[in-house]
Amino acid sequence: MKRLFASVLALSSLTLLPACGDDKDTDNKPDGGDPQSTAQDVSANITEDTTWKAGTTYTLKNYVFVEKGTLTIEAGVTVLGDQGSALVVTREAKLNAVGTAEKPIVFTSAQAAGTRTAGDWGGVVLLGKARINVAGGENTVEGFFATSGDVKTKYGGTDDAHNCGSLKYARIEFAGYELAEDNELNGLTVGGCGTATDIDYVQVHKGADDGVEMFGGTAGLKHVVITQTDDDGLDFDLGWRGKVQFLVVQQNATVGNRGIEASGNKNDNGAQPHTVPEIWNATFIGSGRPAGTAPAQEGLVFNTGAGGLLRNIIVANFADLAIDVDGTASAALWNAATPELSLQSTLFWSNKGDTLAIPNAPNPKKDASGAVTDPDVSKFVEAEKVLAVGLNNKVANPQLTAALNLEAPDFTPAAGSPALNPDNAATPGAGFDTSARFVGAVGTTNWLAGWTAFPKN
């Protein structure tokens, strides 16, 4: 409740007061600060090309909107977020935040190490002009209250190649919070960004809501690590059609919900464009906790007309379900002559403790009194459909080195693992790294080494 109150106060101040970022800052200094200083507070909106320099720590004091120009963040910079703060790059601006493996850019809580917790601040938001599947073609991004005439929080358009900028070799920690039910900021929120957007080597760690949420558009993800979020790992909806390769999701032991939650448009399950990303080489790891613990912990969930083409995937150790094709609209995408929902070359292991099969996920329909009128409205039997002959999906131990370790995880398969057997993998198609003939996000080379981190607090 304290976070919610602080967030509402911060947004209210932006709504009622003129943006202080309208003042020109020709020296590229946030708030006109000393460029030689090792610490600078940032409270003004950004309205022209601006650079945050290596050697300086920048603290976001509230919602900071990049309204125009490009915000460049140099390798090695640390950006701290106060409670009620977030960095929002609007669709009229760009982000150029490119770190290195040796000097990643770190967005983290302004609280002292040892006292940090999920939801300390609001995270990073990128907004663009690519198509989304809502009426009118644009929307207000989650995490903000819609305000008449305020375009800073809008996303969507007609340019599927739009460039929201670059975010590379970066960590986002202890972010995300809820303004109201179903209205949350995530670690990384991407709304309507296009194919020219470059999101590569990014970790989101200990977010209070989803790790990464993609709202429509066509932006892709590469080398993305999502660890110990309080809700879903990767959440996508509203017609997202991006390409993904090398994705790790690791759930925490007590709160984490779904590895993927995929939705179409909850108000119109047939809305175009359909939500159909293409995902290659991903590893989804549950916590291994006992089944039946609230909230339910599920690997891959597709609902409200969402699809996806998934290849070379590992789904392991989820407490309740491996995969749930939830509802008739998503089931129809699987059953279509040209499927828009399919899963191939996937290893399942120990989901709901089952090392021989995968659990079925019936979708019961209830009437107003709560009585079940249909035990399974989707008529989709996951235990049979997903393991059908010809899909190359199987139940087998991927033998990952230390995937359940929360402090020093290692998602590399051991020698002799079925994940390293190219017969178990499909060859990635155009636009992907075709040399990745293995199952899961990591082959024999651990690309997470050196730039990721897994702090408790």
From TrEMBL:
<feature type="signal peptide">
    <location>
        <begin position="1"/>
        <end position="21"/>
    </location>
</feature>
<feature type="compositionally biased region" description="Basic and acidic residues">
    <location>
        <begin position="21"/>
        <end position="32"/>
    </location>
</feature>
<protein>
    <recommendedName>
        <fullName>T9SS C-terminal target domain-containing protein</fullName>
    </recommendedName>
</protein>
<dbReference type="InterPro" id="IPR011050">
    <property type="entry name" value="Pectin_lyase_fold/virulence"/>
</dbReference>
<keyword id="KW-0732">Signal</keyword>
<feature type="region of interest" description="Disordered">
    <location>
        <begin position="21"/>
        <end position="43"/>
    </location>
</feature>
